[in-house]
Amino acid sequence: MKRLIYLFMVLLIWGCKTSVDSIPIDPKSLIIPIETRKSIEDCTPFRTSTIIDTVEYIRLITPDDKSWIIGEITDLQYIGGKFFIHDRTIKGIFVVADNGLIENLISHPGRGPEEYLALNTFDVNPATMEISILDIASRRIQIYSENGEYIRSVQIEDIVRDMAVLPNGDFLLYTPDYMEGNRRGLWRLDSMGKFKDHHVHIDDDFLYGGLYPKYFRRINDSLIGLMGGEDYDRIYHISCDSVRVAYQLDIDIDIPSDVANDELFDFHSAEPGTLYTKNDYFEISNFLHFRVQTQNNVRTLFYDTRNRKLIKEIGKGVDVIDDYGFYGYFAFSSNDYLFTYLMVGSILEKAHDEFPDINEDSNPVLVRYKIKKALNK
Q1: Which residues lie closer than 8 Å to 353 by C-beta, 6 or more apart?
Q2: Cα–Cα distance between 351 and 159 in angstroms, integer?
């Protein structure tokens, strides 16, 4: 009897230490194979017009009675017909109308109860248009109206990497980092900061990963996408009522156990082709974009999620023909659009003919892409 009790306790302790992802696999989830060690079979050039329907250039306009200049666009959300732009240089968020007119600047750095020490990331509740700012240094979320008025503070217990807000006010928090006593994976708080559920766990023995800065992407007002870590390589869809595995990435590299167990392992010091990381995850209702990077190879994948098929895999030997003003990369995705931006220095150097009235005192230009509804090779 004592032996059975001992065995039960060992299993109980082991189960608590190695909690893993318990989200059931959706039978309809898409399995995406990624073969980083093989040459790309289809090396025909990729034309950006294959996926882009329209390109719109939005000049950011400062009102006559203000002197606002956006210095560095760190993040962008497009919600309720407005742009919310995080400018790292001033620790603030610009609220911008759809036509590019800057309406307001929310900037409250400081140590006061209605201020924040750091603006690590932010999100906007599409139901209330409240702006939530994650301040990791103070372990709290500061919430403001789109007019910049302080509403409330939500204290959080853990250090997190990224945050998103659902229409019911729930906060989604995520970190891949192992810190003793700190939650890890994906969990949810209610609108006042009370813990509700720990949706995705990461095994305590898996310490590798987390080289990409942005994890959450707003697919639409009611749905958030999450690029999970290299332990399971899953992309999750999260709503007010559910969490499901939408995509399973079947990558042809297994992270060695000695690397997985070393939280300080240097990605670039390993033998080429033995490790990978993921980044540049963007998703809208019918289109998925992400990148898998090894030490000596980069694969960028475009997927038609509505028809569940690969549009194009880009890597060595595949030329990209920019025939639609692509400007080389996507920077953000939000509510069925993809975005990038052109900083003034880049415009003056490479695109001054297209924007002849841009000068050193101008604001950046946003580029908004609408992806084709019917995506064909």
Answers
A1: none
A2: 41
- Torsion from C-alpha of 146, 148, 149, 152, nearest 10 degrees: 80
Q: Nearest CA to 221 among 92, 334, 300? A: 334
Query: pLDDT per residue over 275-327, tens digit each?
Result: 898 989 999 999 999 999 998 889 999 999 999 999 999 998 888 888 877 66
Question: 315-322 long-range CB contacts below 8 Å, 24 or more apart?
Answer: 315/40, 316/39, 316/40, 317/39, 317/40, 317/43, 318/40, 318/42, 318/43, 318/44, 318/45, 318/46, 319/45, 319/46, 320/45, 320/46, 320/48, 321/45, 321/46, 321/47, 321/48, 322/48
What does the alpha-carbon distance between residue 158 and residue 319 come to, in Å, rounded to a whole number?
44
Q: Give tens-digit pLDDT for 231-280.
A: 999 999 999 999 999 999 999 999 888 888 877 677 777 788 888 989 89
Q: Is the pLDDT score of 154 beyond 70? A: yes
- Asked if residues 96 and 60 have their Cβ atoms less than 8 Å apart, the reply is yes
Question: In the prediction, which pLDDT does 26 show?
Answer: 78
- Strand 365-371 to strand 337-342: parallel, antiparallel, or no bridges (unpaired)? antiparallel
Q: What values do phi and psi take at 11, rounded to 5?
A: -65, -35
Contact yes or no for 170/164 (Cβ under 8 A)? no
